[in-house]
Every structure is written in C-alpha cells, then in structure tokens.
Amino acid sequence: MRSVRARAALGATVVVAVALAVAGLSVLLVLRANLTDQAGLQAEVAAREVAGQLALGVPYDRLETGDEEDHPVQVTDEDGRVVAVSKDLEAISGTGTDRITPTLPSSPSPSASAKDGEEDGDDDDGTDSPDPARGEVSTDDPDFTNGTATVDGDRADYRFASVEATNAAGLTLTVHAGAPLAAEQRAVGSVRGAMLTGLPVVLLVVAGVTWLVTRRALRPVEGIRREMAAITASEDLSRRVPEPGSHDEIARLARTTNETLTALEASVERQRRFVADASHELRSPIASLRTQLEVGAAHPELLDVTGAVADTVRLQALAADLLLLARLDAGERPGTALLELGALVREEVSQRTGDRIPVTVSVAEETGGLEVTGSRTQLARVVGNLLDNAERHARHAVAVAVRAEGGGVVVEVTDDGDGVPEAERERIFERFVRLDDARTRDEGGAGLGLALARDVAVRHGGRLTVTDAGERGARFVLWLPGTR
C-alpha cells in the first residue's frame, strides 16, 4: 500500500476496530455476569424458600415450589438420592444428578419426631427448651451452577443455586432451585447483534473520515512535492515551494525546504563565482608563463627565467589554495593532532628569510603550553597567509604575538600599514576580494589567503577577525580553542 492516505485510513480503522472489539467484549462479559448474578439471586431465594419448608417439617409431597417453569426444584438427601422434585419437571442437568424420580428415605416421620421430641424435651425444672421438631437452613453461601431443565416439554437453560437444610429428623437435605437464563441470553444476544451491525458502519465512517482528513492535511505536501519536481526539472533554484498559512509540521517543513533552497542557491552561486574567478585568476599567470616560454623558444637569449619561475611559483600557490578550499567546501574535517602553537609560529617565521620586512615574534610562556588540536598543515597555512598579508601592506614593521586567552590560544599578526576600513572588515574575508584594485596581480595576491584562513579557523572551532592596530595598521586576531 503505497499511499500515505490509504495507510493512515487502514491504520486508524484497525485501531478503532480493535478498540471497539475489546470494549464490546468487555461490555458483553460485564452484562452477562450481571444478569447471571441476578438469575443466581433469584434461584437462591427460591431454594431458601423450599429449604425453609423442609426445616419446618413440611412433607416432601406437600412442598410448595412456586412457579415450576421459572424455578424448577430438585431435593436430594445426604446420599444423593432424589427425595422431591417440582411439578412437571421432566429432565434436569447441572445439579449433580439427573434423576427426577423421588425415592423416599427410610426415616422417622416429621410428626413422630416431633412427638418424641416433646416427650424428651420435658425438664424437671420446667425450663423451656428449643423445639426439637424444628430443623434449620444453612446460612452459608450457596453453590451456583449452570444447567438445563425440561419442564412440561420445554427445555431451557437455568442458573441453579444449592442450599442445604436439616429437617426435624436430623437429615441433611440439599435443595437445587433454578432461575431461567433466557433474559440474560436475550439481552446479551441483542447487544451482540447491535454491536455486530453497528461495527462495520462505525469502521466505514472512521475509514472515510480518516481518508478525507488525511487527504486535506497532505494536500500542502503534494504542492511541495510538485514544486520540488518542477525545480528539479527546470534547475531554477530561485523558485520556492508554497508555504501553508498554518503553523503545523507541514508549514515548518515548507519553511525548512525554502531555507534549504536558499542555502543551495547561494552555494551554487558561490560555486559558479568561484569557478569563474578561479579561471580568471589562473588565466593571467598561465598566459604570462606561456608567452615567456614561447619567446624563449624563439629567442633563447631573451628568456626571462626569473619571471617564468615567479609565475610558476605563483601558479603553484594559487592551485594549492584552490585545492585546499575545494577540500574545505567538501567538508574535510580538521586533524586531531596536538600542536604547540607558539612553536608552530616560530617555525613559520624562521622559514621566511626573503621577507622585505623582518617579523618580530612574542610568545607568552604559559603553564602547560599553548596547545591546540587540529591539522598542522592547515594551521601553518593560516599563519603563513596572515604573515603574507601583513608583509604586503606593512611599511616598517610586522609583529606576531601568541598568548592564552578565553580558554584558548590567540595569535595576533599586526602591521603598520594603512589598515582596513571598518566597512570592509568582513568583505576582505570573501574569496577573490582585494581592496586595492590599483595593485597589479604580480604585487598583490589573488584574494584567497584571508578567505582560506577564516575557513580553516572556523572548521577548527575558532574565529578570525580584524581590528585597528592603534593609530595605524591592522591587527588580525586568530583564536583557537585550547586543550586545557
């Protein structure tokens, strides 16, 4: 079943069906139990009435059992022999014996027992004593069973109650009296029939309502799907999916989808601009290098080896920056090596022997060192790019300071150049951005160094910002989380 609406309707219908089945079964069981208890109470009343007569010494053939059809009665003695049955009782089951022919026990008659009891009951002191001719009825809870009885040709189900009684002769008798279960069966049957008739109707209504509600709820989702399919077919990332006016999960899905499309559009545009700028930046050194090689091939004495080497180095550096940015854009994670940032800065500065302006280094000695975790190659590239930028703009001095600050390590690179205007302090971290458009490409960079440095810093959990360096110059501040 591939439709969400169909699955939702089926699921709701199954849940409701199970719930109604359980509830209906519970109702039927409770109703049956209550009606059976009522029948048992009626049977107990009838049994105690007959037991009372036996306790008073009423002869078996004179027992009044009431309505024989509503309350069939069977009386048995201690040996299980039938001593009395109600009129018109033709068959019985569920009382312990199915015999219905009375067998009179050999016992004293109630009158004889009473006479003997009167003679034996005279006391010399004239004190009254209990009447020995009177029996008793058991006060214990009766036993209940279900069975059948045939009265005057009609067979029916009954609830039997068994009550014990002791007659005047001391004989213990058991009275089995029944109450019909026809009312219970009719009531249970009516309720069961109503449930079986109404259940399909209820399930049909539940399925239909669930189908309609789900279709209406999923209508915006279908609109989102159609628009996404159109965007995919047209490759027009400027389009957006419709956002419903509700504030439910579907509305949030539409907003998130539009936010994703916005980010994707910006990413694709950035990628296109990056490719275009990279092609533009690569074209100049490649064209210059080709020209020099062609001139050298035609006129070896005119070959500018130094210029060719410089163009090759610049081309190699640009290709390396582009490759690193591509890896960063692809989500490459930084390394987890443990690095001492002060030693890394000293090492980078010591390798810059050809700089036009000497670099001064100040490292604050901290207990436990100035350690960070990350990629040594990438962090070395960040320090190198910051130093290249400072060398390009400084007049007389470039300084580097390393210290612990705010739970991390700070590297400050300061120059005494013209500084960075406040309005441009974020723009300089964009790719292929150079504020000094008058510079030649040979004197300036391609505009990738600071963008690459910030990307590396952010991926290492740090940040890179620029501020004023006092009255003149710029201060680039790199902060990386420490290991302590």
Q: In brief, what are we looking at here?
A:
With 484 residues, this protein is an alpha+beta fold.
Q: Can you walk through the features of this model?
A:
- The protein is an alpha+beta fold and 484 residues long.
- The protein has 8 helices and 14 strands.
- The strands form 3 sheets. Strands 1, 2, 3, 4, 5, 6 and 7 form a 7-stranded antiparallel beta sheet that branches. A 5-stranded mixed beta sheet has the order 9-11-12-14-13. Strands 8-10 form a two-stranded antiparallel sheet.
- Strand 5 (143-151) and strand 6 form a beta hairpin.
Key terms for this structure?
single chain; 484 residues; alpha+beta; Helix Hairpins; Heat Shock Protein 90; 3 domains; seven-stranded antiparallel sheet; five-stranded mixed sheet; 14 strands; 48% helix; rod-shaped
Radius of gyration (Å): 53 Å
Task: Tell me roughly what share of residues is in helical segments.
Answer: 40-55%
Mean pLDDT: 83
Distance between the termini: 56 Å
Overall, the morphology is: rod-shaped
Structural domain tally = 3
Most strands sheet: 7 strands, antiparallel
Order of helices and strands: HEEEHEEEEHHHEHEEHEEHEE
Number of helices: 8
Task: Identify low-pLDDT runs.
Answer: 106-130, 437-443
E-strand count: 14
